[in-house]
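Before relying on records like the one below, remember that each one covers exactly one chain. Contacts with other chains, cofactors or solvent are not represented anywhere in the record.
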Amino acid sequence: MKFAAALMLMLPLIACGRVPLDKPEGGEIWAVLVAGSDGWYNYRHQSDICHAYQILKANGIPDDHIVVMMVDDIADNYQNPYPGKIINHPSGDDVYAGVPKDYTGKHVTVENFFKVLRGDANGLQGIGSGKVINSGPNDRIFINMDDHGSPGLFCFPHENMMANDFAKLVKELKRDDKFKEMLVYMESCYSGSMFQDLFSDDMGFYALSAASPYESSWAAYCSGPLNTCLGDLFSVSWMEDVESKDPSTELLKENFEITRTRTDLSDVLQWGQTSIENEVVAAFMGGKGSNTSPVKKYTAEELKATAVPSQDVPLITLQNQLKSAKNLEEKAHLSNEISALNKRRSLVKHVMEKIALTVSGDEKLVKELMTKRQEKITAWDCYGDAVDAFHNNCFTLGKSTYALTVVPTLLNMCEAGYSTNAIVEATKKVCVFPTMHNAY
């Protein structure tokens, strides 16, 4: 009788496709949270990841099933007016407290990220916490990644993860029975290109990207005393929705729709096996949350009013500081900073134009190579080598946000059939200056 009564209570939820659960039947939930950037202008990436950790922790996922990778240079940064704390909302609480420091500083690398997902504990001996994902065929894995990007690449502090390499890893993990289903939420410019044409609709892989393959994502909560952006539009949208709902009944589809609506400055998209959207949030993020958002939730319009394109955060931050400067000396200093930033941006464009001219030998083709939009990436080997050459010889991409805006030119040259060697040698010939780490 008790079973029958319980079943009757569940029938309305089953009819809607919402079966409450705390964890996947017969499996466990694992999570990897990655903030790939460093520096105060990139505050929001570590803030987002810390917030994601607090949600998973509140939802009952234990620390030994959550791996956090972040440089960890924000909480105690000299520019932080709240030492030891990080916030993800203008009136939010500290999201830094209790966050595991599994892999920080120089250990935030693509290689270590891959080893974590493979469960390669031997390969991580003596590195960070050594914690890995020990998942099996019945388990679900949630991956949340926040940083900058360009077509087909996601930045780490000193290197870049190419989309085809990530796809190969996921397929390897699936082949080795490392997961039943995997969910990826990725916050970066061009993030859709990390999944486009790379994942089938039958391998248990499902992803949301903050932007299409062809556009910038947006930072959010960009005004206030911290002189930086507190979060990213996509990230705060999905997290604030999850916090305000019951994760054991809200569907991933609902979270996607709400996030897409609130992030309408970029095109939030689904990838992979989209049927997974009919599972509840708790299947990947746990199900023991408070179901109440701890902060005032901005309307979509209020949230948009705080947003700026990700690559423009440094410039707009300086411009806002200039507007509120209190004396002539401060105004002069900030004006000089803005002027220097704009000169670095001009240099970035000039350098890429020279590389394109060196490779093509045709001034008329340079504009096309600089502006053409590639619908898909096919020349992966050429493109990966070209990105590495530009990154190593010209501008460190993870630290040079604006340089990422010209990387599509490298892709255009590869897709046009120019040789890898010609592009690599052009970067060496043009970039005779020391590799720049601040072209933002």
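The chain is about 40% helix and 10% strand.
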